[in-house]
Structures are given as C-alpha cells and as structure tokens.
Structures
1.
Amino acid sequence: MNPINYLYLAALLFTIGAAGVLLRRNAIVVFMCIELMLNACNLAFVSFSRMHGNLDGQIMAFFTMVVAAAEVVIGLAIIVMIFRSRHSASVDDASLMKL
Amino acid sequence: MSFPLLTATAVAPAVGAVAVAAVPAAQRTLAKWVALLFSLATLVLAAVALVRFDPDSEDPYQLTESHAWIADFGVRYELGVDGIGVVLVGLTALLVPFVVLAGWHDADPPAGAPDAATQSVTHGRWRPTQGFFALILMVEAMVILSFAATDVFLFYVFFEAMLIPMYFLIGGFGDRAGHKNEQETATQRSYAAVKFLLYNLAGGLIMLAAVIGLYAVTADDLGSGTFSLQQIAEARASGELSISTNTERLLFLGFFFAFAVKAPLWPLHTWLPNAMGESTAPVAVLITAVVDKVGTFAMLRYCLHLFPEASKWATPVILVLAVISILYGALLAVGQRDIKRLVAYASISHFGFIILGIFAMTSQGQSGATLYMVNHGISTAALMLVAGFLISRRGSRLIADYGGVQKVAPVLAGTFLIGGLATLSLPGLAPFISEFLVLVGTFSRYPAIGIIATVGIVLAALYVLVLYQRTMTGPVKAGVENMPDLRARELTVVVPLIALLVFLGVYPKPVTEMIDPAVDRTLSVVDKQDPKPDVPVQDVEAAK
Amino acid sequence: MENLIGWLVAAPLLGAAVLLCGGKRLDRLGHWLGTLLAAASFVIGVLLFVDMLGEDEHHRAMHQHLFSWIPVSGFQADVAFQLDQLSMTFVLLITGVGTLIHIYSVGYMEHDDRRRRFFGYLNLFLAAMLLLVIADNYLLLYVGWEGVGLASYLLIGFWQHKPSAATAAKKAFLVNRVGDVGLSIAIMLMFTTFGTFTFGPVLEATGETGEGKLTAIGLMLLLAACGKSAQVPLQSWLGDAMEGPTPVSALIHAATMVTAGVYLITRSGAIFNAAPDAQTAVVAVGAVTLIFGAIVGCAKDDIKKALAGSTMSQIGYMILAAGLGPIGYVFAIMHLVTHGFFKAGLFLGAGSVMHGMNDEVDMRKYGGLRKYMPITFITFGLGYLAIIGFPGLSGFFSKDKIIEAAFAKGGTEGWILGGTALLGAAITAYYMTRVMLLTFFGEERWRKTATRSPEAPSAEPAAETRGEHAEPHPHESPKSMTIPMIVLAFGSVFAGGLFSVGDRFVHWLEPVTGHDHGDSPLSATTVTLSTVAVLVVGVALAWAQYGRKPVPVVAPRGSLLTRAARRDLLQDDFNHVVLVRGGEHLTRSLVYVDHKLVDGVVNGTAASVGGLSGRLRRLQNGYARSYAVSMFGGTAVLIAATLLMRAV
C-alpha cells in the first residue's frame, strides 16, 4: 500500500481535530480533539519515517506521545478544577482572562 | 593629586540630601536648617572653585579630575570646567540657598492638618518637608555634575537623572493656590509632572541614541571608543578622527533635540508653562533658572564643540526658531491670565535670546548668551520668588484677583517692579548687558534677525508693565486689603538678588572675564571670526 | 576739576537710593535731603562751568573715565563722561530748573503722605538725565535714556491708585520703548559700521562710510528722538502723561526729559550732516509736530493738556531747527533752554492755579483769577509773553532765530518750512492767549460751578480730602511755590536777550555743533516783522473769541476739527483700533494656537496611541476558541508564506 495514503489520513484526522477544537464548547471534547490532532501528527511522522527510510520520524513520535501524556495529566486536572468551581465544562464560560 | 574640588562641590548637596532625609519626621525646622546649611556649604565650595579658576590659563578645562569608570566602554569619570562651566556652577550654588529659603514653608503640612508629631505616630514615614528639601539638594548635585562633566556619557547620566527628583518636586509639591479644589489641583499637577517627564525623556532617549552613535564612530576611527570631550577634540584636531558629514549632522540633531527640549526652544516648549505653573515658586525657579540652563549650556559645549560643521549647517533654522521663541513667548506672556504662566512664557522668550546668541557665532553673541544665562537666572529668581510670596498671601495665581497691592504692601510691590524691570532688560540692571550683547552679536552677522529680535524688547515691556499695572496699581481689590508686606525671611531672599542685579548691571567685568577666553575657544573650534566693521575706527585713527 | 563730573550724577543718585531704601524714618526730612542733593549737583555744575569758561573755547571739553563697563572681546563699552559746551548747557538747565522744582514740590506735595518717595523718584530722574547728557558714548547715553523713561514712568504713575494714572504711565513707557528700539538699532549699526559707539571716534569717522549707512543710523536716531520728545508719530503719550503731579509735568514733560531727542540729534550732528535724507525726515517730523501740537493745544480745555500740546509744538520747533543742520543746531538748543524756563514756569503757574482751585483742571471753570493770585498771574503772564514771542522776551529771540533759519534753508523747502514755522507762531499766540484769557480774565465762572462735572476727574486726588464739593476759594500759593515761579519768570524774560546780545550763545556752542548762517531769501528784519505780525493776528483772534464774549462753562460741540483735536487728532483711536485691538486678537489667538495646536500635536499623538491600544484590547475577548482560531490562522499564513517563498 502506498504510504502516501497514510499522509492523507493524517491530514484528514488533523482537520477533524482542528474543527473540533474550534467548534465544540465542551472542554472534554476539545481535549479529545487536541489528542486527535496530536495523533494525526504522529501518524504523519511515522509515515514520513517509512517513506524516507530513517528513524527520525519515529523518534519524534515518541516525543509527541510523552508530551501528549503530560498534557493529559495537567489538562484534565485543570478541567476538573474548573468543573468543580464553576459547575460547567464549557470553555466559553472560562473567559475571565480578558480586560 | 589635588583636592577634588568639583566633586566636593557636587557631593556636598548630595550628602545634604541624605542628611535632610534622615531627619526625624517631627523635626521639620531642623530639616530646613540642615538643608540651608548644606546649600551654603556648596556655595562656599563653588566660591572657592571660582577663585581657584584662572581665566588666563591655556588649558581648556581646569580643576580637572579623571578616573576610570566603565573601562570596557571607555566611560570615564572626568570632571573639569571652562569659564562658562564654572560660572554656571557658581550660579547654581548661588541660587539654591535662596530657593531653600524662599520655600521655607512650602512643604509644611497644610494648616488644619494634624500636627506632624501626632502624624509621625500614625504614619511614621510621612514627612514631606524632609523630602522637599532633600529633592532640591539632589537636583543641585546633579546639575553641578552636568555642568562639570567632560565625559559625554557621564554628562548624559546626570542630564537624565535630574529628571527623577524634578518629577517628584513638580508632582509631589504643587502650588496650593492654583485651582478650585484639591481634586483639580492634583490632576493638573500630575499632568504637569508627567508632561515634564515625557518631554524630557523623549529628548533624552534620542540623545542616548546619538551618544551611542558617537561611541561607534570613535570606536571605528580610534580603535577603542571614547566619550571624553578632550580626547575627541584632540583626535579631531590631529585628523585621526573624521566624521562623515551626514553622520555628524545626525549626531548633532540627536544631541540638539534633547537640549532644545530642555532649553526650551519653540515648538518644544509647552511643558514649561505647565511645570512652572503647577509647581511652587521656588521649584519653578529651580526649573527655569537652574535646570533649563543645562540645556543651553550643553548646546554651547556639546553641540558646538563636538559637531562644529553640523552646527554651522543647522544655524539658519535654529536662528529662525530662536526668533520665533522670542516673539512667540513674549506675545503669549501678554495673553496670560496666570502670573506664574506669564513668567514661564517670558522665560521662553529669554531662552530664545540665549539660543540666538549662541548660534550667532560671534564673540559678543556668545559672551552675551552666557552672561544671559547668569542674569536670567538671577532676574527670574527675583521676579518669580516675589510673585510666589504674593501668591501665597492671596491664595490665587490669577492676575485678575489682584489690584492695588502697591498701596497695602509697598515693599513687595517695589521688589516686584524691580524684578519686572530686570526682566524687561532695563539698562542699569544686569540683563540689559547680556541682551544687548546678544542683539549686537546677532546683528553684526544677521542684521535682519537682529532687528526682528529687537522688537522683543517692546513686547517685554508690554507684558511686564501690564502685569504690574493689573496686580499692583489701581484701587485696592477685595481680598488684598490686609495683605502683609514682605517679612524678614522674604527680604533676606529678595534683597541680595536685587543687589546682585544692580551690581552686575554696573560692573559685569568679573563675570565677563571668566567667560571671554572660553567663548574665544569655542569660536576657534567652530572656526568663525567676528565680522569686521566697515570702517574700523582704529584704522581711521591710525591713518591720521 | 574733571573728577567732579561723576559727582553730578552721583549726588542725586545717592539721594534716590537713600530716599527709596531709607524707609519711614526719612519721612520728616527726606524732601529737604532730596532738594539739597539736587542743589549740590547744581553747585557742582556751576563750579565746572566756571572752570570751563577759564579755558580756551576749543579746549573746553572735559573727560572723565571711571571704569571699563562691558569688556568683551571685540566690544568695549566704558563708563566715561564727556562734558563739553553742549553737555554743560544741559547740565545747568537740568540741575537749575530741577532744583527749583524740588523746592516747589516741597510745598506742592505737602499733603501727600508719600512725599519722600516722590523726592526719591525726582532725584532718580535727575541722575538719569544728567547721565544722558554727560555720557561719552551712545550705550551709556542709552542707560540714561531708559533711566529717564523709568523715572517718568514712576512719576506719571505716582498716584497709582488711580487707574488712569497707571495706564498713562504704562503707555508712556511703552511708546518710549518703541523709540528705544530705534536707539538700540542705531547703536548696533554704529558698532557694525565703526566698531565702536563712542561719540568722538564715531562722529569723526562719518566721512569714511557710505551715505546709506549714515541715513539708516540717522533715521533710527530720529525714531528714538520721536519717542522721547513726543514727536509725530510717537507723540500720543505726552498728553496722558499729565496725569502725573504738576511739578513732574514741569520738570520732565516740559523742561528737560522731552528735550532729550533734540540733544540726541544735535549731538549726532555729524551723522545727520552727512545724511541729507535723514535730515529731511527730521525737519518733516519737526514741522508736522509743530502744527499738530499747536492744533491740539487750541482745543484742550484741561489747562495741563493745553500746555502739553504746546510743549509738543515747541519741541517740534527745536527738532525742525536741529534738522536744518549747522544753520539750526545752536538755535534749537537756545530755544530748548528758553523753553525750559518759560514752559516750566507756565506749568508751575498752572500747578499753583490748581492748588488754589481745589485741583480743578478745566479752564472753563476758571476765570478772573488775576485778583486772587497776583504772583501766579504775573509770573504766568511773563511766561505767556515769552512763549508767544513778545518782542524782547526770551521766546522772541529763540523762536525768531529758528524761523529765520528755516527760511535760510533755501529753495522751496526753505519757503515751506519757514511758512510752517510762521503759521505755528500764529497758532501759538492764539492758544496761549486763550489759556491766559480763560484762566485769569473774564467772569469768575467757578462761582457758578461749585460741583465738579464727573467727566472731568481731578488730576490731584488729594482734593478728595480737602472737600472738593465746596465752592473753591482761590488763594495764592505758599512761598516755597511762588519763589521758583519768580525765578523762572526772570529766566523767561531775560535769558533770550542775554544769549542773543553779541551772539553769545552762538559763540559758546559753535565749537561743538558748528554754525553756518545759510543764506536767507528774506532779511532778518522782514522775518522779525512777519513774526510780530502773525503774533498780533493770533492774539487778536483769541481775544475776539474768548475775550470779548463770555465763555460757556460747558464746552460747545465745536467743529469737526475741534472735536478731533480734543481727541488728540484721533491718534489714540487709531492706536486703539489698530494696535491695542489687533494686539489683543493676536495674543488671544496665539494662546489658543499654543494650547490647541502646538500642545495639541503632542497630546494628539498620545491620544491616538491610547485610542489604538483601546481598539486592540478588544481582541482579547477571553474565549479560548477565538485564540485558537488566530493561532491556526497564523500558522496557515506562515505555511502559505513558506510555500510561496519556495515557489519563488
């Protein structure tokens, strides 16, 4: 199978993720969409690795996974804290950081 | 290694500032006396410097001190004075004791406020009197250092640093007489202080760019950059350092802009009326008679000495701006309703004369301009301080609130008139000599400009006499009837200033002797000779 | 002897310093101290005069160098004095008349509680005026020139609590300042032309330079003279200056200060001689003023203002004579001296009349006073005869000579000038007769008008304390006032004859000013006869109008010219509309411009930066998703840019 098709899939997944981040209000969904984008990137990395025949892409994919894990830990904690204090998981409700 | 006299002269008020600030809150009177003592000590040191200065010496700078400061950038702690610098150091040291004495009660807590002793229990740090006098002494120290510095960077540091104490003096100790209510006063005052700071900072930052540019130019040509005036002068003379025309012009503009703001030259003048109007009279004197002189002094020393060619290039424009300043300042003074703003606009007109004299590039013009700095300092101090005494009695700055003061307080009116007559350059008083020298010096090279500037003397008479007529003559106005005449402390301030005005008007030789060699040196740097008269009478006599 | 010259100035200066700084302790005797020092100056003047007479006439000039005043490279001004015959004449006139007027003032100002200060100012005036005439260079002269302006300012505004006095003082100083601009430009021109402004070198070197420069210097000097001597177009201050106490009007605004312009032109004779165009300007100014002043003098009902118009006109004669060149210099000065006597006498007489009439100044409310004040009447009468040029009295000799000199100018110019001078003499005779008749003859109109009309306010505020609404009781003034009047009357009668017999005055001044007879188309006798003829016509006209018919107490409306002349021929209205109004508008609009435009540019910059940041702030809306959009947008732009760069 032509590895280029995996790149198309990665682009598709990334677009879905981006659309989700921009359009959804629920923080959990936004969060999952971010994960989707990260994994789309991973897929692209691995595909490139395969196409170019070196391992750099795979190494990057590992880094991305670590970052994603760390992000999940902190991000979920923040979402839980916001939900506890405001009784809402909508990102639009957390709009205090403005002048 | 001789005694560092100039450093001592500058350090004395700085130490005084610290000492005053350390006086406990309750002992306000002690703080005042400490301030007066230190300002007098500075005066003594400055007097010693004046005596030790030898006008006939060949050295460009005397009483020099030189130490490495920031070796990596060629910045040195270099002090030294020429005849112009030493006279202005003397002027500064002379005026500050009067400023302190005149402002004796200006920073007292307002009557009716709880006594300072009880205040100190509740707010231990609340001590405006100490702050006021400490700031005045700080300004004095920095001004003296800017007059004495011969290193461009060192000068820049103090030129900018003096803004800090000035800012607090304007913003923190306003004139209580100005406005309808406390709120309005506070708003106007902080507006004036911020305006002062912004204008001068803007000028200073442009100058900083030029200072760095100068360093880069010297570093290119000499291998290692330097800020020392003497080194730069020597390098230029020997041809080691050559600045391209365009670079020189840009650097000149950078320096000149800062000095023109400080001086102030039209159209960069609008901060001055606000600053002088809102601050107390002694602080206003400090601004116009002392701090602003750094601007005109620096034009003479830095613009002309560092960038002679560019100075000549810019002369026509500067002369026109100076003439505009003269007439514009005088006309606006006529239109003012506020006594202190009137004096401020009059000062703008006078600064026009000083700048005119500097850039006419004749020995009469420059001697006159330097003498003008001294005389303007004394005459404005006399007029402004008496105006301050007047304002503190009635609690209003508006001319319309006065009338017939002459009848109730004749001594006050008399001294006010003498201050005014000095401001309009009446012959017999000091400012006449400097104004005439400036006019003659300008006229001999630029007759048209000289004649236009001469019109300024009619306008000066107009604003002074209108002010005097409206405030002092006519029937006694309500609110003025019980005005007390000048008190002993106030007379102590005014009488010596008037005596000086008369003395320097009749016998200015001690000052001109100091100035003359320095002026000749400046003119040789810019390579300009005085225009020769058409029919030199000496030749006619020789022919006979 | 020469070392005494400085004391001429020092004595009154000392008096001024002591009296003005001395405080109330001197109130009791201060006026005598002032008088004493004025007299001391006069004595020194006489001593120097005697010394000078002992010398050969070409070596009479004395010099005293005190110290170097402004030593700047290429510029030298000294405090040095030069006393020659011309200066000497002035010194004697100033100190002599000055001392007399000091004595007069002791009585006149008796009720004023600021008398000490008055004498301080008078002494200050004497010092400045003496400095003016004995300075040996133009810059030092300038010091005296402005010094007398200051003294005049202080004295006109002596009763400062009256707004009219304060305004008049300010006006006098300002108009004089305009003239001073002329003097300072003249000095600058001299400096650039000759490299000096000391009399000797400058006046000797006039031949070495072009006529253009000299004409410029001459015109600037003329401007200065116009200011100080109240000549058209800078004459408007003199009438208002009558707000000052009467002795001041006599000393400063009649006898001495206002003649400083004549001194200046005569002193600078060498410059004018070499600049005919400037001379033409001088005679034109003189001729115009002499008619102008005379017309104004005819219309005024205020006795002092009528005399002020007359002063203007008489100085016009002097300026005219000075503009004639060597033909006229001597006569200009001679008329100046005789005028000093009779005009001071007339003013003192006017002061004496006012003193006795509750400070009423309106001549229409006088009348028939000769019975009540005989001494004033006689001295005033002698002054009157002198000024109209009654044969044998002082004014006759000096004015006649000026008219003669005007004809001697030659050509059409000579006829015009001579004719003008003759016409002036006729008008002089008319208005002075009018003053005389209104004041001392006719019915006693003051009996009808016990209360004063409000539109003619008193010049002497002390009146208010003396019960002004009562009917006046005219009475003779005290001795301290009448004695100076008598002395001056002697001068008015005999000075002219004394000077003219054997041409003494001509010989005295000739070494300094030079003299030239000119060639008159008319013989001296013809001129004298026509002078007398116009004099008779003038007196007769005045008699017909004011002597034969009763004089209305309220002034009739009068012809257009009369009404214009009452308002100083509309000069003030012109000044008001053009200068005052125009100036007010200019300053007001400049204040506006400064606030809105100059300041506005800076404030506007600040405001627009503030406004911009206010807009940008809105972008921070707090919604995480909109931040995300901008992040995506930014990334997309970056990628697009990178690709585009690749493609290119």
Note: Chain C has 24 helices and two strands.
2.
Amino acid sequence: MTFEKDRNEMRKAYCELLMKTAETDPRIVVLEADLMASNGTKPFAAAYPERTFDVGIAEANMIGVAAGLAASGKLPFCDTFTPFATRRCYDQITVSAAYTNLPLRIVGTDPGLAAEVNGGTHMSMEDVAIMRSMPNMKLFEPVDETQLRAAWDWILTVDGPLYIRIFRKTAPKIFGEDYRFEPGKLSVIREGGDAAIFATGLMTADALEAAELLAAEGIDAAVLNLHTLKPLDRDGILFWAKKCGAAVTCENGTVVGALGSAVAETTADAWPIPVKRIGVQDHFGEVGTMPYLKEKYGMTPKDIAAAAKAAIAMKK
Amino acid sequence: MLSEKEVRALASTAKEIRILSLEMIGHAGKGHLGGALSIADLLALLYFKRARIDPQNPKWEDRDRIVLSKGHAGTALYAALSLRGFFPREICYTMNQNGTTLPSHVDMRKVPGADMTAGSLAQGFSAAVGMALAARLDKKGHKVYTIIGDGESQEGEIWEAAMLAGNRKLSNLVAFCDNNGMQIDGLTDEINSLEPMDKKWEAFNWHVIRANGHDIADIDRAMDEAEKITDKPVMIILKTVKGKGVSFAEGKVSSHSMTYGVAEAEAEVARIRKEDE
C-alpha cells in the first residue's frame, strides 16, 4: 500500500499557520532553543523578529520564560526536539505550565523513531507517557498536514497548556480536504467489525496498511486515529471496543504509559477486551532509518496485522 | 529618597509582616520562618512604597509585577499582601490548613496579588524574565521585580535566565537576592558557595548593587540607583540575616523550617512589641 505524500513538510505548514495567525493575533510569540532551522520557524523569525525569542540551548529557561510571557497575556509556542521539549524540562513544565494552567504550546519535533540518525539520546520514546500523566496538560499528535491545519483553531483556543508532537518532515497524506477535526473525538479512517486498530501520528499509515493485509485474509479491521490523547475519547474507544471485541494500538514511542496504556486502561475500566500494543517495548532507541527500526522493533504493518489476529483469537 | 518618617513607618510595617508571619506559622504548627523573616523589610518597601499595585484590582494590567521566586517564603508574601489589603487577615491564619487558599509555596491561582506560582526553585526567576520581555514587547512601562535566594542561585536555571536577561538588556527587570548565607543543609559558603556573587552577575551583564537588606533606607537607595540603569537588568544583593527579628530563629540554619505553636508565637510577639516601648 502506498500513500500519497503531503504537499508540504509539517514544519512548513506549522510555520505558515503561525505566521498567518500572528498577522492578526498579537498574542502569538515563538520561543526556540537553538533549533529554529530544524523546526522550520526561521520565516517567522524573519517576519516577526521582536516576537521571536531564541533563548539559546536552555530549555528549562525557555519554559519558564514562556510561562512569564503567558502570564502576561501571550500565547507562546515553544519549539524543540521532543526529548528536550519534555523530559529535559519536565519539572518546569509541571510547575510553571501545568500547575499554573498557563496556555503554553509546547511543540516537540522529531518524535520517537523519527529522530533516526540522531539515535538513542535523541529518541524520546517516553514523551507522550510523561506528558499524559500531567494534570491540565493536553496532547495532540497530528497525522498529516491536513489534520494539523484542521486542528489549528483548537490549538489556538484550548485552555491551559498543550503538547503538540509533530513529525517535521513530509508525512504520508491520510486525510482528505473534507476532514473535520474534533478535539477529544477519535477520527474514523476505516470502518471495520473484527478488530479495532487505534493509531497515532506516523503509525496511522502503518495501521491502514495492516488493515489492507487483514482484508486480504477476510478480516475486517477498523482504523481509528486518537489524535488527542488528552482529552481522551473514552466513549469512542468503548464504542469500538464493544463493536470489535479486540483491539491493537500503534504508536511511535513506548507502549508504557502512552496510547497503548490509555486504550487498555479505558477498556479495562468499562469493557475489558484483548488489547495488543504495538510500539517500542520498554527499551531505548538507536541510530537507524525509520523502516529499519520499525522492522527491528516489531512495528511494521505485518506486525500490526499479526497482533490483530492474536487479539481476535483471544476473543474466543 | 525616603523621609525619616517614611523609613520609620516602613520599618514598622516590616515588623508587622514579621509578626504576622510568626503568628501564621504558629497557627500552622510548622513552616518556613527563616527565609520569610529575611525578606520582610524588602516586602514592606515594595508593597507599601515602591511598587505600583492596586489591592482592589490585583490583575490590573499595568501593575508592577512582583515574583517571589524563593516560593517557600510565601508566608511573608501573604502577610504583606494581607496587610496591604489584598485579602483579610483571618485568611492568613488558615495557611497550610486542609482546604486553605494559602499553601506554603506561592500559588498564583489561589492567592490574590501573587503574580507567579513558585516553589520549585529558579522557575519564578525565569518567569520574571518572560514578564519583562512581554512588558517590553507591549511597550508597557511597568517594572518586574523578582526575589531569589542565594541558595536558590545554585540552580542552573537561574544562570540560564540571567544570561538571557543580561543579553536582552532587560532594564525593566530588577532582581533581589536574599543573601542570608544559609540553606537547609548549612551555610551556602560551605555547601556550594555563590561567591563572588557580584562578579558572577556582572559577568552575566547585570548592573549589581549591594545593600543592607534590613535597612529600608539603604534598599530604597539601591532601588533609586536601579531606576537610573537603562541598558541592563539590575541585581540588588541584599545582605540579610535568616530568621531576622525573631529571637529563637535569628541567625540559625534551623530557622529554615521551624516547629512551634500559637503559645510560642504569642510570647515572641509580646517580646517584639515590647521592644517598641
């Protein structure tokens, strides 16, 4: 199964959205920690130099400064790679952004395996898990450019802090131009009744490919995108749990505490079904291309299809 | 410059901040006394003379911001805010009781007049830098005041923020370091010395002034000097004594957090009041 590519790199779409909004919304400010080129925000800095704060390689201070800006009525977007956007400054985010419930927008780029040749030090497998466990924090991981654009109004208006996890390069195009984003409501990409495949971010394309493999064997799998892990679509998860009776989760990061856990917790609480979790199985990353790492870590469409069959078998 | 009468009045206010802080911790049974008492004179000058604030309108957009980054000294801040009219004195006596709006560490969502949440050290200082950047961006004339501790300055984030503020020439930012020389485990000079503190701040492109933190006229003089600085943030290093003004706390490392009750507080308040006679 091959996917059409998005028109733009996600970082380009992100910067365009920032710049368009900044024209009319004086609250928009951008903070960077020496990764402006990687995050694609240089055009913003050129257009709005006085509203761009490159604090240098000092992520803890970036979050604290953003909190001060937010407390003064600004809507700060803080951009850096996912490990530095989360675990590097976790306490600062916890106290200065989440505990205060100030509207910081923390944008982590190069999630999970996307760090590729930057390797184990730069692969934040745990960012979603640790941010999800933080009260007041919301989480959004766009699948493609279309979804990012569709969610933009919510990104600007949602109360309190928000963590956005963005693949900065060109993503496979999943959503059509008629796509409508609803925060806290999963997006149904493919209907199905035998197994529910819940997927986030880059793994959504793999989940769709797995559904094709399963269809060839006469198995009808639904593919559901949980773009916002917080607010979590509890009702949506339970609807598909009841409909399919078996689930697989697919995420570009650790299965400990993130999407897989969210689905397992939700079903265990209200409608227990078999849940197989595809993702990084509690180990660190390493240098490598995404296809190589997905193969090595058991995160390919074939692995997802096998997990679906195993989950279906457990129904009996 | 303050008149002698003003200095006397502010010194009396500082004493009231100390007395109320002492009482609040007595009611709670335990609390961060030492580092609250060491900033009482500064808080009196800021909240009762220098800062443009309005107790009737704590969120006034053009107010000066005061960020107590050494958030464990919340007791003194609450005492100052209450005495200044932000909330009734009775509320002070609920500090750290179940369900209170006054937690030991400052909470901007619960305390009227508190401009930032603090407690995990150095974070308030970064936020103050952000507030100063916001004020400059919006072409606002208000000042951002922030109070850090010398022990707190062992946090790396202090220096991340100091570097940024110095490089951005944030002259609308005035910081105070409560240099009482003590931290929980002992003397700052013995644990991980900050000295030479003035040279450190100067090296980060700050204008540095030293003052006696228990001489209100001297702090005021330092603030007058700070007003004249237009191309740098200002650090006023206040030489202070931890536990200042309370006989069983003054100059003691153990004053950081003390356990005592209402009776001990009342006896000490009576002693302090007698000093005036």
Note: The mean pLDDT of chain A is 97.
